[in-house]
Amino acid sequence: MGDRGTSNHSGVTDFILVGFRVGPELHTLLFLLFLFVYAMILLGNIGMMTIIMTDPQLNTPMYFFLGNLSFIDLFYSSVVAPKAMSNFWTESKSISFAGCVAQIFLFALFIVAEGFLLAAMAYDRFIAICNPLLYSVHMSTRLCAQLVAGSYFCGCISSVLQTSMTFTLSFCASRAIDHFYCDSRPLQRLSCSDLFIHKIVSFSLSSVIILPTVIVIVVSYMYIVSTVLKIRSTEGRKKAFSTCSSHLGVVSVLYGAVFFMYLTPNRFPELSKLASLCYTLVTPMLNPLIYSLRNKDVKDALSKFLDKKKSIL
Q: Which segments constitute the G-protein coupled receptors family 1 profile domain (predicted)?
C-alpha cells in the first residue's frame, strides 16, 4: 500500500507513525531512553500498588486513590511506550487501523480518568484538612468507590465520543501520522473532511472535561490554603501543606504538559511531541517518585516491605 489512502477512512488499513524526526544514529539512544523510562514506570507503579495493597496502615481513602492513580499511569503509558519503542527498530513504522483506534480509545479513557481522579484526590485533601473530625464520615468507602468508578465512567464516555468523532473523518491526504502514537490532532491533519464542526465539538468536549476538574482542584486548594494559614504553629502548617504538596506536584506536571501541547500551534509538531512525551511517559514515571519521596507513610511502608523480603531471603 502506498503513502496515499483512499477517499474514505473505510479504505485505510493502516497508518504510519512518523515519530521523532531524528537521524537513524539516534534511534538506539532514543530506544534505550524509552526503555529506561518505561522500566521505571513499571517498577514504580507496580511497586506502589503492591505496597498499598499489602500494608494495612495504607488502607485509607488517600491511598485508595493513589493506588488507582498508579494503575491508570501504568496502563496509559503501556498503550504508547511498547509500540513507540518497536518503531525505532522497524522501517515501516506502521500501525493497523484497528490498532490506531484502540490506541486513541484507551489513551483517551485513561488520561481523562486521571484528570477526574486528581480532582477527587483534591476533594479528599480538602475534607482531610478543612473538616478532619468528619473525614471518616464524608470519605466513606462507598463514596471513594463511587468517585473512582465515576472517573473511569467519564473517561469511557469521553473516549467513545472522541474516538467515534475522529474516525468518522475521511482520510485522503496521507497515511503518515506526524507523531509517535495515534492522536486525534495529527490525524485531523490527514483528513480532507470539513473540520469546523469537528473542532467545535472537540473544544466543547475538552471544556466539559477540563473545566470541572480544574475548578474542583482550584476551589479545594483555595479552602485548604485559607484553613492552613489559620493554623498558629509553624509545625502544624508545615504538616498540613506536606500532605498536599505531592498531589499538587502531580497536578502541575500533568496539566502543564497537556495545556502546553494543546496550545502549541500545528506548525510546531516537534514541540507537541515533546509535550506529549511529558504526560505519556515522564509524568507516569515521576508520580510514584513524588509520592514516595515526599510521603512518610509510603516511605515507612516501603521500608517494612523491603525488610520482609530480606527476612524471607
A: 44-291
Report helix, strand or coil for 181: coil
Q: What letter does residue 282 receive in the DSSP assignment? A: I
What's the rounded Cα separation, in Å, for the pair 73 and 114?
A: 8
The three grid cell numbers given for residue 248, joined into one nine-digit string: 499538587
Q: What angle do CA 154, 53, 139 make, to 5 degrees?
A: 55
Nearby residues of 206 by Cβ (< 8 Å), 6 or more positions away: 262
| Identity of the residue numbered 12 | V
CB 95 within 8 A of CB 13: no
In angstroms, the CA 113 to CA 16 distance is 28
Q: Which three cell numbers stand for residue 289?
A: 517518585
- The 10s digit of each residue's pLDDT in 166-195 is 998 888 767 899 999 999 888 888 888 888
User: What is the pLDDT, as a whole number, of residue 9?
Assistant: 47
Q: 14 - beta bridge partners? A: 96
Mean pLDDT, the chain, integer: 86
The string of pLDDT tens digits covering residues 42-79 is 999 999 999 999 888 889 999 999 999 999 999 999 99
Name the phi and psi angles at 177, rounded to 5. Answer: -90, 120
DSSP characters over 56-101? GGG-SHHHHHHHHHHHHHHHHHHHHHHHHHHTTS-SS-EEEHHHHH
Question: What are the cell numbers at 149?
Answer: 468508578
Angle at 83 between CA 28 and CA 281, to 5 degrees: 80
Average pLDDT over residues 240-252: 82
Q: What is the identity of the amino acid at 54?
A: T
How far is residue 172's CA from residue 304's CA, in Å, rounded to a whole number? 58
**Backbone conformation region of residue 93, classed left if phi is above 0, alpha if psi is from -120 to 50, else beta:** left
Sign of CA pseudo-dihedral 222, 235, 286, 46: negative
